[in-house]
Amino acid sequence: MVLNHLNGLKGMVAAAEGVSLMVIGNANNINLSASSFEKIIANDYLYVDKSKFIEHFLAKRSDVEIVARQRRIGKSLNLDMLNCFLTDKEDNRHLFEDLYIRTSPVWSYVNSSPVFLFDFKELNAILYKKEIWDKINRFMCHYLIGDDIDPEALNIYDSWKASSYDPKTGNRMYEDTTGFQALTEMVYKITGKRSYILIDEYDNPMNHASSLELYNEMRSYFTELFSKGFKGNKYLEKGFLTGVLRISHEDLLSGLNNPETFDVFADRAYGSDYGLSEEEATELCSIAGLDLDLIRKWYNGVRIGGYDIYNTFSVMSAVASRSISCFWGQSGTLDRIKSIISPEQKAKLIMGLGNGASFASSINSRINLRMLKLDCDDSTLYSLLVQSGYLRLESWDSKNDAGIVSIPNEELETVWRKFIFGDSLNNGNLNSFLRDLSDLENLSNNIVRFLVPLFDALSVHDLPEGEYKYKNGKTYRKIPEIYYHQILLTAFYAIKSDLGYRLLLSNRESGDGRYDILLDMGELVIIFELKSGRKSDRAETLAKNAIEQVKNKRYGADLGKPVIAVGCGFSQKRVMVKCTRTDLV
After folding, report:
1. Taking the model in full, what pTM does it have?
2. What phi, psi does 102 have (nearest 5°)?
3. Is the confidence at residue 301, as pLDDT, over 50?
């Protein structure tokens, strides 16, 4: 049977949408690294049933689709599940017995089609052409079994192999880009069925090669491979590509006729198929005895198709360990972001930390990989951060390529703190300046030595100035105090273990006013009061004024503990710190 587009399937799918999803498997048997669907089911690993994805996939009429999502959110596992369901080379029906898809209107299509899954995650930057050729060759050989093989199919195979040889030298070459087209045509001659081609991490090779000399060669190869394999291929039922980034057509997909893309900017089909829904997270928390509110605070917040999803890897890690930690941040690196972000862009991100702030930015929905370089523009950087899951897209204006972004949850705040301050806060001895609080003059000097390189690294002198008025109506300009406040507050978060405090508070009422930052050290508290001034102001005077404010406002008088007041004066990049004991208990 030839599988054409499934007429009428959308209505059947809609009728079945009310069926609830479920979690299966052993809650004490969790494999966090497996992307093999068969392995997970066969070993009774804990699994969140995502088989409705198959239904959504088959209901869509697009010839080529691209799903772009952050890493570790279920892309590879879903593709492998789809491969197990569709392939006509094996009988995998037993794998789906306990899943939603078993009662779905699309169940009749199980194990009925030629399907070819390509994993681009591990392609070698030098040998990628040979690796793809070898994979296509193996797929072809799977169908060239038996004595009664269609002569046209054999001819297609022989012609394709012959094209891989240099006629002058007789050596095998791997420049041919007709592999997908030849594979699907040959299999059609044998089976009478159109094929599905699935590609996992389609953007990975180009992303890693964007800074290398072979980029143009690689781009040309993949553009031709996709164009010849997907565009107008009458032997292809559907092409489906997954990755992290939505790459611009100029970079890779110029040969395709507007493939339908489902990403953080727009997803009308697969929003619930990647990541965990509120209902799924609730069931997992119930199974593991975890606090749903805490899980939501830490791992929810990436927005797809207008609603929030939970990070699959983080929640499953929390279930496995029965604890809360920065799991997703530990599973990868931010090396690419580190290589392109500017100090000004770092400073802007700091303002979104710790207080749930959001900010507007130009964001291009498609990434030109060649623009991912040092000091790239905001539209490219924030597009990368949104698509890769490090920022949440609150809203999106597609006409103007503008959006509102924020840091989605506690886990990502932890990731950003460590990332932003990783280079600046790497001196363990200096970062423990609060260990000895007996010598206040030495404490003042140590805090200055802590702050100066921190502000140098973040280019505080490039922060935007605000306009203020004197009592007589004249205006002056200075860097707003909030910038210094947020940088210092976030730095304290980032090195909590070094500083040894028990509690960190900001902008709380105390005495006769509101202090800036408080560190509860156990037996005493340290209150930081910050003052920023004009270029002409002396940082020392600002620090003294800060100390006087702590005394006059009686900050800490209601806490029942001795108080060390730290006055910090900032005049552009100039820093001065004064310390004294107020002991208003």
Report:
1. 0.84
2. -65, -25
3. yes
